[in-house]
Amino acid sequence: MWALVAAGSIFFPGIFLLSKRTLKCLMGWSEGDAAVVSTRLVSSIQAIMASSAGCIIISSCKDVMEDRHWLTNAYILFATPYFAYDIYAMFLCYWHKLQVKGHEEAGNGVVLMAPAVPGYLRQEALMVLHHLFMVAFCFPVSLMWRQGKGDYFQGVLFLAELSTPAVSLGKVLIQYKKQDTLLHKVNGVMMMVTFFGCRVFLFPYLYYAYSRHASIPMYEVPLVAPWQCNLGAALLWPLQLYWFALICRGALRLFTKRSKSPPEAMKDDKNLPLNNSRSSNQTD
């Protein structure tokens, strides 16, 4: 059990450090750029692994409650350290963003990082709480409370990560000011589709799947489902709805911006700060 936790604790930070060093040495990137892109890369790798595990588990479980697959608990143990690592990785991205913006004075790295923690927690409060909830609540519930039942539902939950690669690529493209490229538009469509299907629609589907298994109406499922399931859905689903609303708002802003006339667009551009360095204001 703890061997898988230790393996995940080494794997995800190790991929991050290896990617960052490679980008700095081979591409000549700055520390900040390399850290941001490496964070997105690790997130995408974890998402692909989780989605692949989910597909394998779902295809192997015919009975949604009784069938089991060894990969379910194994990947939960392996992936849980990722959420703790990602909190720190996101903080590094935030800290480098402050350096680029000139909000921190030069000096010892430890001294510079400490004042940035409160601002990071304010800006990324929802994401930090989400990750802490995954470690403190979902991890013990998935391993101990389930008692070997419902591997199918756990596999479906793994599929929520399917939208992460598109989200990560979109943030990298914004970092390098590629919002007007065809790739960004295609990726935006993929992000909206996968996020809606794998995060927004996911929770209603879980209740629907159980209603079919138990042969009861879907509206009765919350009355018979364990309180842990209802609590997890009640806390996580509103977050997905909120983030999906932000994605839709960003897409609307992108397409309405293109509808502006050239003079209006030039007028708006005059209000933007001139900065030759890569903007990292939208990387997180």
Descriptive labels:
284 residues; mainly alpha; 76% helix; globular
* First-last Cα distance: 33 Å
Mean pLDDT: 85
What string, H for helix and E for strand, traces the elements in order?
A: HHHHHHHHHHHHH
What class would the helix/strand composition place it in?
A: mainly alpha
How many H/I helices?
13
Provide the low-confidence segments as ranges: 103-111, 261-284
* Main sheet properties: none
Q: What radius of gyration results from the CA coordinates?
A: 21 Å
Helix content: over 70%
Beta fraction: under 5%
Overall geometry: globular
| Secondary structure: number of strands | 0
Oligomer class: single chain
Describe the structure.
It is globular and about 60 Å long. Helices cover 76% and strands 0% of the residues. The longest helix is centred in the N-terminal third of the chain and has 32 residues, at 70-101. It has helices at 2-26, 31-60, 70-101, 109-113, 116-123, 125-145, 151-158, 164-175, 182-200, 202-214, 221-224, 227-258, 262-269.
